[in-house]
Design goal:
This protein has a two-stranded antiparallel sheet. It has 2 domains: 1-67; 69-257, no CATH class. The protein is built from 11 helices and 2 strands. It has helices spanning 2-26, 35-60, 73-79, 81-88, 93-98, 109-139, 145-159, 171-195, 198-212, 214-217, 226-257, and strands at 101-103, 219-221. The relative contact order is 0.14.
């Protein structure tokens, strides 16, 4: 009876999530008179429904441990400081100060914050939850399991952004998004391997999106000035070195254990 009930709940959540995705994002329903607010609200509804479905799937497949907050959370946060720097400098501080970027929809800030959190939550559970688990189980007997998993998982994560073409994004911005999504995906994959803490990935991802999606919804102007690119390159190089060293160490520890 319990198994039958699980099938019913799973099917109901899947149908509900598909309905929300279609009517609130792929073919947005008119919920609010404000166009930008309507897009944000629709995206929040669709991603919330998908997140609920995914949490349920984790639960029935014995993966609810992903939702546990580890006791080492703050110690792990210290290790992740270079990754947090990359996320923080993605916010266009200098452009806002100089006036080349203006936040013109402060009234939508609460909805925008919920939106970026749900994007991070859903994508981390999918790509740093299910996908990495499956890939590592496949590669764990290969010579470089962590490296192979990082590269393939990041490729999946970056190519998944091609779906933005379905909601009207132009090809140039999507191709650019694919490139930096691969790099961010690699960083977050190593963060998960190192900390075993998916909430750390969610937090870094949400911070990165908060700055990166401003001009899509609540700001106008150019966020990418010279200061932005200098900070991005410097912090990116520092973080890349940190992540590569961690990846090398993970592979060495694997060889030592085996």
């Amino acid at each position: 009876m319990a198994k039958y009930s699980r099938h019913i709940i799973t099917t109901a959540l899947f149908v509900f999530a598909a309905f929300c995705l279609f009517f609130f994002e792929l073919r947005p329903a008119k919920l609010l008179p404000d166009g930008v607010a309507n897009v944000l609200l629709g995206s929040v509804i669709s991603r919330l429904s998908l997140s609920v479905l995914f949490v349920w799937l984790l639960y029935i497949n014995g993966g609810i441990y992903y939702l546990h907050v580890k006791k080492t959370f703050f110690r792990d946060m210290l290790w992740c400081l270079p990754c947090f720097l990359v996320a923080v400098v993605n916010f266009p501080f200098s452009a806002l100060i100089s006036g080349t970027l203006v936040i013109n929809r402060m009234d939508l800030m609460p909805l925008y914050i919920i939106y970026v959190i749900l994007i991070a939550l859903l994508e981390e559970f999918i790509f740093r939850g299910f996908v990495i688990t499956l890939l590592y189980n496949f590669f764990k007997f290969k010579k470089y399991p962590y490296l192979l998993t990082t590269v393939v998982a990041s490729l999946f994560f970056s190519l998944a952004h091609l779906t933005n073409l379905l909601v009207g994004a132009d090809i140039v911005s999507v191709l650019l998004q694919i490139v930096y999504s691969f790099l961010i995906g690699a960083m977050l994959t190593v963060v998960l391997f190192k900390t075993r803490n998916i909430w750390m990935c969610v937090l870094i991802h949400a911070l990165f999106n908060f700055g990166g999606l401003l001009t899509s919804f609540i700001a106008i102007g150019n966020p990418w000035d010279l200061v932005f690119w200098i900070l991005t390159i410097v912090c990116g190089v520092l973080c890349a070195g940190h992540i590569i060293m961690a990846l090398i160490k993970l592979e060495k520890e694997k060889d030592y254990v085996s």
